[in-house]
Amino acid sequence: MAVEPGRNWQRYDTRDRIKRLAIAVLAAATVLSSWLWLDLDLQYVASSPPELLDLAVRMYPPEWAYAPDIVMPLIETIHIAVVGTILAVVLSIPVAFLAARNTTPNRVTYAVGKLIVTVSRSVHTIIWAMLFVVMFGPGAFAGMVAIGVRSIGFVGKLLGEEIEEIAFDQVEAIDATGASTFQVLLYGVIPQIKPALVGISVYRWDINVRGATILGVVGAGGIGVQLFDAVDAFQWSTVALILIAILGIVLLSETVSARARAMVR
Amino acid sequence: MSRIAVTNLTKVYGDDTIALDDVSFEIDEGEFVIVLGVSGSGKSTLLRCLSSLTSPTEGTIEIDGDEVTQTHDDIAMIFQQHNIIGQMTAYSNALSGSLSRSDFVESVFQLQDSAEKYRALEALETVGLLEEAQSKARNMSGGQQQRVGIARALVQEPRVMLADEPVASLDPGSSQQVMQYLLEASVDRDLTTMISLHEVNLARKFGERFIGLRDGKKVFDGYSEDFTIDIIDEIYGDIDIDGIVAEDGADTNETETGKRATKGGSAV
Fold this sequence. Notes:
The complex is a heterodimer of chains A (265) and B (268).
Chain A: H1 14-38, H2 43-59, H3 67-99, H4 107-122, H5 125-136, H6 140-164, H7 168-176, H8 181-212, H9 223-232, H10 236-264
Helix pairs in contact in A: 3-4, 3-6, 3-8, 3-9, 3-10, 4-6, 5-6, 6-8, 7-8, 8-10, 9-10
Chain B: E1 4-13, E2 17-27, E3 32-36, H1 43-50, E4 58-63, E5 66-67, E6 75-78, H2 90-95, H3 104-109, H4 114-126, H5 142-155, E7 160-164, H6 172-188, E8 192-197, H7 200-206, E9 209-214, E10 217-223, H8 229-236
Parallel strand pairs in B: 3-8, 3-9, 6-7, 7-8
Antiparallel strand pairs in B: 1-2, 1-4, 4-5, 9-10
């Protein structure tokens, strides 16, 4: 087919143009209807710069003398994230095998695996923490369990998808040696998903460090307890110090996470 | 008693794809048998049925008189694509051949007893990879990976060794090397060995006994002296075999396996 000089070439035909226009109109209507339904009042937007400046003035300088008092809560925050993540990873491995099509024994177990993943992921950490504070009482234990339960779905889903991508030939080769089902999983599947398991676990730990900083809002331990106590008492210079400390551990966890994931890639 | 007895073996995939059609043969202890045929002739299905990775539709397979219905450490399998675990070292891959003799703790922590560890190192030495024992398998060449696959098979201490197109993805030099290691392992350990190949020259060089498959049917079963150009024609059908059979080797029965005691037998 030769290119005819002077012919008007267009990227989309009429039907495609109408379809694209309809999608754009629908998207705009969705945003507009949401805005109208929320009945947003913009008067506070106008007054926010002076409010922000006022808050900054009250926060400065940070209350450095309070620093020794937040060392233990900070350590507790990291420990909540570490133990909660380990709990989640251990529990999510069998869940991932159930939720992966190529390793789940049957349709019922597949459905059970997917259900565990969905339930865990659809409830926010803070809501899990509220439930576990009621069950176990306030403190780090409730926070650790909340972090763990919320993370099972995340790790289980990503790990399950990784299991579905493994080379089954290698699994078959271990099976051919006369190995048991457990040994086939151990030698045929686990080595193939190990880099992903390490990467996902460290990434989730990184997320959990950030998540653990606000568990204190419902009394589930960590630096959040001090943060919300200070907010309630209008001790803004103390709040500033705690926010700087939170920023520090979040940056630290992100650095550790990024390096660890780069190592296993 | 034959080491391997295959009786009326049939495998049908789906509703009407006949991969194996009423195949029967017997193989004596220590024989080195090459299965030949074009792609789709049933070679891989035959070996997969023998290793119980695929269940036959009809027929039976017996090893030393016992019917084979599930994977077993008595039967080792070597695969075309090597199928070793790339993330593990050559040594760990070789050691995985001992899994059927390992308990839970030994499997999890690689705490197999020293005899098993020695066996893995010895197997790597047999295939010339002792120096590479701690190398990650994924960093090894295709030929080396296949030799790790052979080492894993040897650590199983099998009575039967099966190899499904073990050199199909290798260059000619590596192919010769891998076939030589398979032959030596078979002779040294008196292993009953079946290897599927589609390279006639390689088959003629290393083969002692040949089974030819075409469209799932056995069309030849005999020893090298009977493996003539006419037989090759029968196995390969309309394919022009001039290019796949070396002229200087086409009418000779001189083989690598001929250097060991030749067994009696006749073409069927």
